[in-house]
Amino acid sequence: MKKPIIVFQDYTFRYKTQKTPTLHNINLTLYEGEKVLILGPSGCGKSTLANCINGLIPFSYKGEIQGSLKVAGIETKDASIFEISKHVGTVQQDTDAQFVGLSVGEDIAFALENRSMPRAEMLPKVERTAKIVGMEDYLVQPPFQLSGGQKQKVALAGILHDEEEVLLFDEPLAALDPAMGMTAVDLIDRIYRDQKKTVLIIEHRLEDVLYRHVDRIILMDQGSIQLDSTPDELLATGLLKEHGIREPLYISALKNAGIHFDKDAHLDNIEELDIAAYKQPILEEMKASKPVEVPERGELLLKVDHVDFSYDKRKVLDDVSFEVHKGERIAIVGKNGAGKSTMAKMLCGIIRPQKGSITMNGQNYLELSIREIGQKIGYVMQNPNQMLVKDMIIDEVRLALELNKFDEALIKERVEETLKMCGLYSMRNWPVSALSYGQRKRVTIASILALKPDIIILDEPTAGQDYLHYTEIMNFLENLNREFQITILFITHDMHLAIEYTDRAIVFADSKCIADDFVFRVLSNTQIIEAANLKQTSLVTLAKQVGVEPESFIRHFIEREREERANGSK
Q: How many degrees, rounded to 5, is the angle at CA 48 between CA 148 and CA 243?
């Protein structure tokens, strides 16, 4: 029988600055050697629960505790954070905030240095853990020069020094491209199995986590546990959508075909679905598939023509060409470091082409200042901390309007409208420092939307967002696109976003633009998927199992989702 490793008993926690508790009467037991996924919408209490486990509560975040929480038999409120850290290792969502060393090796060694471990004993441990995560060749590299996936690996290596029985991952996939996300899930699973660790994962991307087996899922909302069950049991219910969590694509596709699941259905692994039971309803559903309609393109807004750009001697854009037309919704996808974010900065005028040209409404944009470009193209950066400059939310959303000298009455109207649409109005007088990563992301989006530019570029808009807030923002952006013909470009690793909210995908790999086509064609093309570090979606897998042509299956799924969204059923 497995031994309990984390035990909550009638546990309630209230932050010092709040009137009501964030966690309510938690009763939960986690056992040695389990892999557990903690799900829930933003603000549900899952990060607070994690911070209770790793000791940040009550030592870094003060508050009132009622009840008991024991980790490895230790009552956490009576122990030091140093003592708890010997049992729980944490990889944070924002890996940049976790780095303390000037090199990869120094950062991996940090925990060992804190234990006053002799250097002769420390160095072999650092080399061993670096090798486990595949970073043994980067020990002298500065962390800030690493890709998002490499940073995740270094952060993980820093907690793999044998002592910690529990490994806690907070949004480990947020900054990773689809293929690297699969690699991260594989790595976590391998460590879980080989080292017999207890693994806790907090993540919105349910389908990506379920790429490898999970023992239990804890569904949280409003500070309490709503469900503690197996993945199969949860997927068979309607609780995911009720609590603002996105279903796996293949589950949605099966439901679109009118399929209902019984309590014994095996659903968490698409490779093990009972296809014989589902094939006929899917084939019937596909009879309603419509022919491809090529939409009329609006006026030409941007033309990128044979553009090159290099940082020092490293070429990041190589002979890139594409066009952007009014009213389009475009996904810019590809592997980490392929040049996507560099291209976005170039479109905004932050950097300029070293070769080739860009025209905006027929005008050479080299003749325009950054401010003039910024009035027509809004750019929401991937890392919200790089955009936020004001202390208060309302002041941050006002800032761009003030700098552009808008009338005060219009500023108030725009700010109120945008804050409400982004779900921030009730928090408008909060300090930015009190916000979560996902909430900060929403503030940066709101500050750009307030300007109502002709084109909006969003770099990873869904990172750190639960499905509820993601849907609110995306539906708002979709409405802007539909009602005002605002062109929207999404730089994203989120294939769900590309499928649900864009029509066209521009694909980058190794500094080149390797594809520019309908989303359903790109995501059903194996060669493009492999070259760009994308992930073959579960829709492709399901289509092949049923015997349906993947391109047609994805296109029909897109149509069904959009019809339901237009009818207000989602």
A: 85
